[in-house]
Specification:
By secondary structure, this protein is an all-beta fold. It folds into 2 domains: 151 residues, no CATH class; 83 residues, no CATH class. This is Receptor-like serine/threonine-protein kinase SD1-8. One of its GO terms (molecular function) is kinase activity.
Length: 272
């Protein structure tokens, strides 16, 4: 994560891509998956695209065609000895193929296993009983949504980039937006109690970087890593809180909208 002109720009992603030729011509617009689906992180996997920044994506779900779109799947960079299961933004053409532009490489906006990257030939499975399970090549459990037996009917990647396990009534059982990592995307909400934590390095995805942001019941606080963490910026509300809903911050229309005492559709308490 990079620190830019404003403290909060380190925590959201803006899609900026160039249009170039598609490196895979297969039509691809599959935003959902059924129970008993599985995917292997294989070099021969369909929709595996490598980029000139030394990153590679192997998409298993993709939402939409033509332009910057959300996809989820396996992601690596550098030597690609280790991988993340992530939601990322990629450029697609009108046929739904992922393109490889010379600018605007894949942008990871969420990852499931940032502290436990896996190897080639790891397997992701949506089990018959509704658990989304990631196992390394040797069978070691790397990550799970722990949703077995919770009436999951399928997996959906929404237009907002939210990875959702849903039930027969389309209600959310589990969603990636409830487990943010180090980025906010347009429309995403950071609710009181949630945090964004920077990665250690661009080449080390584990949390524990220098900067973090926490949403509290009173507002937003940014920290520098220390023992204890040192707050270096805050936007807090100290008056009587008339809002019965949990406080939250929302990234919308290029701005952070902070709701502590107010609630939508009313305007935010702060806009920055």
């Amino acid at each position: 994560m990079m620190i830019m002109s404003s403290w909060w720009t380190a925590f959201f992603t803006v899609a900026s891509f160039s249009y170039l030729a598609c490196v895979t011509s297969q039509p691809y617009d599959y935003p959902t998956a059924n129970l008993s689906s599985s995917w292997i992180n294989s070099v021969s996997a369909n929709h595996s695209v490598s980029f000139t920044d030394n990153s590679t994506v192997r998409a298993i779900l993709l939402r939409g065609t033509f332009g910057p779109k959300y996809a989820c799947g396996f992601y690596c960079s550098g030597t690609c000895e280790r991988y993340l299961f992530s939601v990322f933004i990629v450029q697609t053409n009108s046929d739904g193929g992922i393109t490889s532009p010379d600018k605007g490489f894949p942008q990871v906006v969420w990852s499931a296993n940032r502290n436990s990257p896996f190897r080639i030939n790891a397997t992701l499975q949506l089990t018959p009983d509704g658990d989304l399970v990631l196992r390394d090549a040797d069978g070691t459990l790397t990550w799970s949504t722990n949703t077995a037996g919770k009436s999951v009917a399928g997996l959906n990647l929404t237009e907002m980039g939210n990875l959702v396990l849903f039930d027969e009534k389309k209600a959310v059982v589990w969603q990636s937006f409830d487990h943010p990592t180090d980025a906010l995307v347009p429309g995403q909400v950071l609710v009181a109690g949630m945090n964004l934590t920077a990665a250690v390095l661009a080449t080390n995805w584990s949390e524990g970087g220098v900067f973090s942001v926490s949403m509290t019941s009173q507002g937003l606080v940014a920290y520098v890593t220390a023992d204890p963490p040192q707050a270096y910026y805050d936007e807090l509300y100290y008056g009587p809180n008339q809002n019965k809903e949990a406080s939250y911050v929302k990234y919308q229309n290029g701005s952070l909208q902070l709701y502590v005492n107010s609630v939508e559709p009313s305007g935010p308490d702060w806009l920055f």
